[in-house]
Each structure stands twice: as structure tokens, then as C-alpha cells.
């Protein structure tokens, strides 16, 4: 009987095993995860779960019984330590596991601040997994001082939760503006105003020189010489694809585990999906850190293991929740040369163009702008920017 083993019981791993069964695979399926619980959604970790609005059970992607019901052997709290691609055998913390087809869905690892600048002090947290959030949650008490290092989406979402719960929040961003890596100045301005309106102190264009404290963090010194007191620190300074196992097994790496459009790695019998991969996209190669990508790519891999011979064509989209604002992002803005703003009553959307070509849309509390933008981008259509900017334009008409 064929045995498919999936390493990484996260979003991609869970989607892959479910799709395999759903697609009629009758062999053995094993899903191996290093974390102690069934696969869960990560987005609420910096949103509803951190806020205390969401229970642990609601985080789980499927009830635990699902896996047994589907004949999927779920091994939690089990780490794969090596792959022998010749013998098709894995070494794990619970012994060896043989496979016929292997899927790597190992996700990402958060960047950590070096110990040399205080990154190893107690009270310094990353936001990647449930254990991180469960460890920091008790510190979220009214009046506590939190320093957030990094003004990307994760840092801003954590700042929003902290401000909502009455903490004193300072966020430090080394770049000139928050969201610089991922968004236009217009989007940064929108979120700066939102956070400042909720009392968050934003320090942009200032680096972290070092964290201060003996044993436990007590504050930070910034690159401009100022010192900030903090009861705890959250870092959101980016992630790296988790290529540890793949690299050691001799699998080709290129800004992540390199896969082709079908999800195959450079080694026969080994596939990969989700955050850990880089894959072909519009003549180049990209890596995406998002739930929709993890699900869609993992499902295509499952179908291809079953012989579909299907290419994965990413349709990038993403979201972020901060206070009462839902940001939805369609497309990828890389290479844009202008941004068209569409401002409504309580909503705003920012449309990225390269010449006359629409690349992406950031839509804040503007589900229609998002939906229309996404459909236009996927259809390769680019509306006249003047029409987009005009608040009287019926966006839906642009789809016709
Ligand atoms: P993961 O979900 O990270 O799963 C990988 C799993 O593999 C982990 O459980 C890991 O422990 C396990 N693993 C790794 N190595 C081994 C090994 N050797 N042995 C066994 N197990 C191993 N995306 C969005 O689209 N929208 C959002 O709003 C959003 N918000 C986010 C908020 C936070 C706080 C975080 C952390 C992420 C957020 N993301 C969001 C990103 C999204 O969660 C990821 O893109 C998605 O989880 C990727 O799925 P994955 O399966 O590739 O990796």
C-alpha cells in the first residue's frame, strides 16, 4: 500500500492530507507535526485569539477526530530530524518512518533578535505559534508597557490588540515608515493615523540599538539614543522559510524550497507546499507567506500526487485586521509606479499600477473595492485610474 507522509501539521500540511483523501487516495497517510496540538489557524494568533475573543477549539482547522475518521495518522509533538531520500525513510523523535511520497510543509521560522543585543532576555516574544501567544498573553494587562519591534502586519496587529486592551504601546520601525516593505506610502499613512488615533506611539526611521535589562527585559535603547521602558517586548521582524530538513537532504533551495509548478522539489518523490517554498510565478519565482497560498498550493500537490499533472497558478490575496478595520489585499504590488487612492466614507482603497496595468489593491473596510480589484487583476483587466479614483464610479461597472 502506498504511504504518503507529510512533514508539518500546519495549514499546508492539513490541506494536503484532507485533499488526498477527498481525491480518493486509498493508501496510508501520515501527518507529522512538531507542535503538541492538531493543525490550527495562525492568523488569529495576532488578532482574535490574542485579544481573548476566540477559544482554542475554534483555532483548530478541523476537530481532532477528523484525522482518525479519515484514516489519517496524525503524529503531534513529533519532529522529523532527517530525510534519507535514497532509502525513502525519515528519522523522527519517535523512530523511523518509511514513505513512498513525501510532502514538506514545514512553514516558516520567525527571525529573532540576536542575543548580543538582548534578544535572549526573558520577556521578549515572537508571534509564530500557539506556544508564543500563550506565553505572552498573561502580560497583556491594562497599563503594562509593551514595546513592539517591527512595523509589518504582525507587529501592527499585536499593537492593535495591546492598545485595545489598554496597554501603553510603543512600536519601533527601522524603515522610514511602517509597512514599507509591503505597501505604498498611502497605506502606511492610513494605518499610522489609525494607530495614533488609538494612542499607539509610533517611532519610524529609528532602529533598535539594544534591549536593556538583566535577565528580564526592562526597556530598549534606540539608534537615536533615546531609551524606552518596557515590561515586555514583541518582535515582528520577518520570517524565513524553514528549509532546515530540505537543505540537509540535498534538496535545491532558492529563497525557500525550490519547487516547480506542480510542487515537485529537485528530489524524486519529494514535494513541498506553503510558506517554505518558492515557486514559478509569471516568468519569475516567488515565495508567499499566506493562508490562501498554503491551502491552494498544498491542494495542487495532493492532486498531483494522485496524478493530475496540474500546475499551481497563484492568485495572491491576503488580509489583516486592526481595530475595526479589515484590510484586504489582492494581487502583488511589486514594481508599481503609481498609486490611485479611492477614499470613501470610512473606507479607503489604494490601487497599484505599473503604467496602465493594475497590479494590486489594498482595500481597508472596502469589501467591494477588494472584490472588484481581485476579479480585475485575475482577469488581467486594468480600469482607467481616473474612474477608480472617482468616488461616484460604480466599481462593479468596471467589471463589465
Ligand atoms: P505553518 O502553518 O507555519 O506550519 C508549518 C508546521 O510545520 C509548523 O507547525 C511546524 O512546527 C511544523 N514543522 C516544521 N518543521 C518540522 C519538522 N522537522 N518536523 C515536524 N514538524 C515540523 N496569513 C494570511 O493569509 N492572513 C493573515 O492575516 C495572516 N496572519 C498571520 C498572523 C500570524 C501571527 C502568523 C504567524 C501568520 C499569519 N499569516 C497570515 C501567515 C499564515 O499563517 C501562514 O502563511 C501559513 O500558516 C503557512 O502555512 P504552512 O502550512 O506553510 O506553515
Structural descriptors:
400 residues, alpha/beta, 5-stranded parallel sheet, 11 helices, globular
Q: Can you give a write-up of this model?
A:
Residues 3-298 form the FAD/NAD(P)-binding domain. Pfam families: Pyr_redox_2, Reductase_C. Keywords: FAD, Flavoprotein, Oxidoreductase. Its cofactor is FAD. The mean pLDDT is 97. Helices cover 24% and strands 30% of the residues. It has a 5-stranded parallel sheet with strand order 3-2-1-7-19. Strands 9-16-10-11-12 form a 5-stranded parallel sheet, covered by helices on one side. The chain has a 5-stranded antiparallel sheet with strand order 22-23-26-25-24. It has helices at residues 11-22, 48-51, 56-59, 65-69, 130-136, 153-164, 185-197, 244-248, 291-305, 367-379, 385-389, and strands at 3-7, 28-32, 72-75, 80-84, 89-92, 95-98, 101-104, 108-110, 124-126, 145-149, 168-173, 201-204, 208-212, 219-222, 227-229, 232-235, 239-241, 257-258, 270-272, 277-281, 284-286, 317-322, 325-331, 338-343, 348-354, 357-364. It has 400 residues and is α/β, with parallel strands linked by helices. The chain starts with a strand and ends in an 11-residue tail after the last helix. The chain is built from 11 helices and 26 strands. Helix 1 (11-22) packs parallel to helix 9. Residues 7-13, 32-35, 42-43, 45-46, 79-80, 105-108, 127-128, 154, 242, 245, 274-276, 289-292, 294, 318-320 line the site of flavin-adenine dinucleotide.
